[in-house]
Design a protein that fits this description.
The complex is a heterodimer of chains A (366) and B (415). Chain A has 366 residues and is mostly helical. Chain A has helices at 15-18, 25-45, 48-73, 81-98, 103-107, 111-131, 139-161, 189-211, 214-224, 226-231, 236-258, 272-285, 290-317, 320-343, 347-361, and strands at 172-173, 180-181, 184-185, 264-265. Chain B folds into two domains: 11-146 and 292-378, Rossmann fold (3-Layer(aba) Sandwich), CATH 3.40.50; 149-286 and 383-410, Response regulator (Rossmann fold, 3-Layer(aba) Sandwich), CATH 3.40.50.2300. In chain B, helix 2 packs across helix 12. Classes of the chains: A mainly alpha (366), B alpha/beta (415).
């Protein structure tokens, strides 16, 4: 599935061409169009509702990349990712609210960007800690150990101790305008949107690049057969823990980003079901594909919102529908996962791959 | 074309058309639009579902009885499953739909949205009754029709001190002893603790050790054993029903003989079902009447429950339906007043609607509501009920403003 056929008449002559990011002029054009869409068209045309949906999609993508890296690329099942997102969010919040930043950093608006990086590191280290059992256990057992992260980090450490810092007894308050990125105050949906796009691009490019490296190949080898990988000389434990670190790092960035969109943060924002949701995202999008992460996030958020919007006009005729629909919506999520597992186990990314190849090979697709 | 494909296409096109209409909807403006954010499937759905049903039924009632000076209310009610990211998008959707006001739900969404609603000037009537939402200087657009948690705690302690303490054998010989049981880290559970401690100190209580009991606790024996050493005369529990029931059961089993005081979310018709005999004699604050009690307008609540949700037996409906009604009716009255003044903007609803209410009584066993530009504590009265012989009976009604006018006005606002 990883091979995308080149369009008719395009040939590579050296490795540089073979490994180029954008291999044809057509792809370059496509990317420019995407750039135009993301940075100019959507911000120009979208109102706050559309922007807030985009932000939710972005948050889902950032959260799900880490899960994709662990499950899709390294084969390490996880159901505790929300905990690392929480670590990131809380680290960033505490650094912004409590840390005595030098005035120069505050004035330059560097406190938040630095906190994003530190949040990533912290979440990465916690992730490694909970990745340690992966040295000994696999599969279902690993799911259980990763679930422990939720109970220990969110339900115990954050709820019982971290939330109490500063004697608040309440959620940490982060009114819009607390967070400053360089000269910009992040105080509107549009600014959050730009921050989201920026972070998503950095993380996606980062993961895509790692996957092209020795590390990425080692992960794929471990996923496909860890014994063979070890026989080939890959230090399985080291690379597994590295995967946990990267996944946690990106999870931390996701949490750190999300606080810019919130006015207050409490442990309630990181329920265990969020980890499950993220696994749902990659299952629907396609396991083992970065495109899949993006498609999955788009699908999960957009389908839910569209279903809701579709019901709105009908509510005029039959008002009770708006209420009854609430349950149908929840069921739709479950149904979508079942349908994908049965009819499209490779996820939306597989469809995308097929469509791309169809056009690349057209009209000689045989 | 195969029939299956025709069906698929028809469904797809119908979906697209409906989506387009859905996106285009905000253009109409003949009615007053209200958004309602509810949890019917998430972590707080055990109480949230009944509340949401109450809201929907109350809006039907308002529309059937003349609406807002002749204008109908259009209710957009969404479930966000207590997922905060979704609450944020739903809030944006309400803004897009040009909702005049929002009926919100719990601490999670209310806290996350408080500064945003203040910036956007949209009245947000929530079911989070935290005392720190009552200071208009900090949260001008957060409102509710209930006694706030802090006033509830003060009222409960006062009622016990007045009615129960004099009957104890040790009365007059020593100070009464109080202990607190709550989840330290929960914003809801801990929001009234500062006020409770302050009040107990003022009345001369001896304060015992505080016990951390999770909202999801099913076993609280260690906390009860710790409390047994202190021998409290009274125990204040500020958690929700499930957790409160666990404490009551364990206290009963381990023979901790003490009176128990509960805030509104720990005190509903489900408590006796969950705690059985252990619920006998508990004292709780209920700012509204229990479902079906003989108070003005309750006949309508029951009638609309039967009419619009006949599938749910009446004995399963609870006080949370009445809570939903209270918030919806209160908001409707504010809208009526603002509409009469000709200003249905968020600012107008606040200024000419809510803040013109002085001892406004809409029945349902709710104490008269008053909002002023400097004080958003709608009720100064805490209605205290006792659960005895299978019934909730009114034990006392404490009006803190009348009893401590100086402290009420100058000290107790906003915490």
């Amino acid at each position: 599935m990883t091979t995308t056929f080149l369009p008719c008449g395009v040939y590579h002559e050296n490795y540089i061409q073979d490994h180029a990011w954008w291999q044809t002029k057509f792809i370059k054009g496509k990317m420019l169009l995407l750039f135009f869409l993301l940075f100019i068209l959507i911000p120009l045309l979208a109102d706050t509702y559309i922007l807030s949906i985009c932000n939710q999609i972005g948050y889902t993508i950032l959260g799900a990349i880490g899960v994709q890296l662990l499950i899709g690329y390294c084969g390490q099942l996880t159901l505790g990712h929300a905990a690392f997102v929480a670590v990131g969010a809380y680290t960033s919040t505490l650094l912004i609210l409590e840390f005595p930043w030098p005035a120069i950093l505050l004035n330059l608006g560097l406190a938040y960007p630095i906190s994003i990086f530190i949040a990533g590191l912290m979440a990465g280290l916690w992730s490694v800690l909970f990745g340690l059992p992966s040295a000994r256990v696999k599969g279902f057992y690993l799911i259980l150990t990763s679930m422990a992260a939720q109970f220990i980090i969110v339900d115990f450490i954050i709820t019982q101790y971290v939330s109490q810092i500063g004697g608040r007894g309440q959620a940490f308050s982060l009114p819009p305008g607390t967070i400053k990125l360089g000269p910009w105050l992040i105080d509107s949906d549009l600014k959050v949107y730009y921050l989201m796009i920026l972070l998503c691009i950095i993380c996606i490019v980062g993961v895509a690049n790692i996957m092209r490296s020795r590390v990425g190949r080692a992960w794929v080898a471990i996923r496909d057969n860890d014994i063979s990988a070890e026989v080939m000389g890959i230090n399985v434990i080291k690379y597994k823990l590295l995967a946990f670190f990267y996944a946690g790092f990106i999870g931390g960035i996701a949490g750190s980003f999300w606080i810019s969109n919130l006015a207050a943060i409490s442990p309630e924002h990181f329920p265990w079901s969020w980890s499950l949701w993220l696994v749902g995202v990659i299952l629907i999008g396609g396991v083992g594909s970065i495109h899949g992460t993006i498609f999955g996030a788009l699908f999960m958020v957009l389908v839910m919102e569209s279903l809701q919007l579709m019901v709105l006009p009908l509510a005029d005729i039959y008002p009770k529908l708006l209420m009854d629909f609430l349950f149908i919506k929840e069921a739709a999520f479950g149904l979508a996962i079942c349908m994908f597992l049965i009819f499209e186990p490779n996820g939306l990314a597989y469809r995308w791959w097929q469509t791309k190849n169809y056009f690349n090979l057209w009209p000689f697709s045989y | 074309m195969k029939p299956k494909k025709i069906w698929l296409k028809t469904i797809l096109y119908a979906g697209i058309i409906m989506l387009m209409i859905g996106l285009a909807i905000p253009t109409g403006a003949a009615t007053i639009k209200i958004g309602s954010l509810n949890d019917m499937t998430g972590a707080t759905s055990d109480v949230g579902k009944d509340f949401a049903l109450g809201i929907a039924e109350a809006i039907h009632y308002i529309n059937d009885t003349g609406g807002i000076n002749g204008k109908k209310i259009k209710l957009y009610q969404f479930d966000y499953g207590y997922r905060i990211p979704e609450a944020l998008t739903k809030y944006s959707l309400f803004k897009r739909l040009k909702c005049a006001a929002i009926l919100g739900w719990g601490t999670g969404d209310t806290e996350a949205l408080a500064p945003t609603v203040a910036r956007d000037k949209i009245p947000y009537v929530s079911a989070s009754y935290s005392g720190h939402l009552c200071n208009p200087e900090k949260t001008p657009y957060n409102l509710f029709f209930s006694t706030d948690y802090s006033t509830q705690a003060r009222g409960l302690i006062t009622a016990w001190y007045d009615k129960k303490w004099p009957n104890k054998p040790d009365y007059g010989k020593r100070k009464p002893r109080i202990a607190l049981c709550y989840m330290f880290a929960s914003p809801y559970s801990s929001s009234s603790i500062k006020a409770a401690k302050d009040h107990a100190k003022m009345l001369g209580f001896e304060m015992g050790p505080q016990q951390d009991v999770s909202l999801f606790a099913i076993d609280t024996k260690s906390q009860i054993l710790a409390l047994k050493e202190f021998k409290p005369d009274v125990l204040l529990l500020t958690n929700t029903v499930m957790s409160v029931a666990a404490v009551l059961r364990d206290a009963y089993a381990l023979g901790l003989k003490t009176d128990k005081l509960l805030l509104n979310w720990g005190f509903d018709e489900n408590l006796p079902k969950l705690a059985g005999k252990a619920a006998e004699g508990v004292i709780g604050c209920a700012p509204w009447a229990f479902f079906g009690q003989n108070v003005p307008l309750m006949d309508k609540v029951v009638e609309y429950a039967k009419k619009y949700n006949p599938g749910i037996p009446l004995e399963k409906r609870t006080i949370h339906t009445v809570q939903g009604w209270a918030n919806a009716l209160g908001l409707a009255e504010a809208l009526r007043r603002a509409d009469k003044a000709g200003d249905l903007s968020g600012e107008g609803i606040l200024k000419y609607g809510f803040e013109t209410m002085r001892d406004y009584d809409f029945g349902l066993g709710v104490a008269p509501a008053t909002f002023t530009a400097t004080d958003h504590r709608s009720q100064s009265e805490a209605r205290i009920y006792e659960y005895k012989n299978g019934k909730f009976t009114l034990l006392d009604s404490i009006d803190l403003k009348k009893r401590w006018p100086e402290k009420w006005a100058n000290e107790w606002l906003g915490w």
